[in-house]
Design goal:
The protein is of the alpha+beta class. The chain has eight helices and five strands.
Length: 197
C-alpha cells in the first residue's frame, strides 16, 4: 500500500489523549498551515477556518461546551457523551473548525448550493486534519457540539475567542498523544459501497 492508504487505515477516533509527545501545539499549527491551503474546496472558495486553542483556553472552551450540552442532550445521550468533555481537556489542544459565512454566501451559487458546498468543504478539511494528525502520530476525534449558527448555539465560543462574527462552528477536533488506541468500527461490504454501474 502507499503511504496515503496506510494513513487512511491507521486513522481512528482516539478519545483517550494526553500530552506525552515531543510535538508542541506550535508544531501542529505549523504543520496545519503547511497543508490547509491544499485542501480542495468548491470553486477554490477556501471557506474553512481552523482555530487552535490550548492550555486554559482549551479547558474553558470544553467547559462551555459541556455546560451547554448537559442541558441540550437527553439524559441517556448525555451519559454516553459526558466523558468526552473531560477527555478533550487532557490533550495538547483542539482544532476548532469554522466556516466563514461571508465566504460561503459569496461563492456565487444559489443559497442552497452554497450551503451544500460549505458542507463539502468542511468534510474534506476535517478528513485532511485527521490524516495530518495521524501522520504526526497524534490522536484525535471529530466532535460536533454547539453547531447552529442561525440559532446562536456557537456564539458563546465565538465571543470568548474574539472571532469574526461570520465564523460558523461546525466541529471540534481535540488532539494529543495516543493514550489508548482507537479501534476499528464496523464497515459495510466494500462491494456494496463501491461498484461499477
Amino acid at each position: 500500500m502507499s503511504a496515503f492508504t496506510d494513513l487512511i487505515h491507521e486513522r481512528h477516533s482516539v478519545y483517550e489523549i494526553g500530552r506525552n509527545t515531543e510535538h508542541t501545539v506550535e508544531d501542529v499549527v505549523e504543520a496545519l498551515r503547511g497543508v490547509a491551503g491544499r485542501f480542495p474546496s468548491a470553486g477554490n472558495s477556501q471557506t474553512t477556518r481552523f482555530v487552535v486553542v490550548t492550555g486554559d483556553k482549551n479547558d474553558q472552551v470544553w467547559d462551555m461546551l459541556h455546560e451547554d450540552q448537559k442541558v441540550a442532550m437527553n439524559p441517556k445521550m448525555y451519559e454516553f457523551f459526558a466523558p468526552r468533555f473531560e477527555q478533550a481537556k487532557k490533550g495538547l489542544g483542539t482544532v476548532l473548525m469554522f466556516e466563514s459565512r461571508e465566504k460561503v454566501e459569496n461563492m456565487g451559487m444559489s443559497p442552497d448550493r452554497n450551503e451544500l458546498y460549505k458542507e463539502n468543504n468542511h468534510g474534506i478539511a476535517a478528513f485532511g486534519v485527521w490524516l495530518l494528525m495521524t501522520d504526526l502520530g497524534l490522536g484525535t476525534s471529530l466532535q460536533h457540539y454547539n453547531v447552529g449558527f442561525k440559532q446562536g448555539f456557537d456564539a458563546k465560543i465565538r465571543e470568548f475567542l474574539d472571532l469574526p462574527a461570520d465564523y460558523e462552528m461546525l466541529a471540534q477536533m481535540p488532539f494529543g498523544s495516543i493514550e489508548e488506541p482507537g479501534t476499528d468500527k464496523p464497515s459495510i461490504d466494500p462491494e456494496e459501497q463501491v461498484f461499477i454501474a
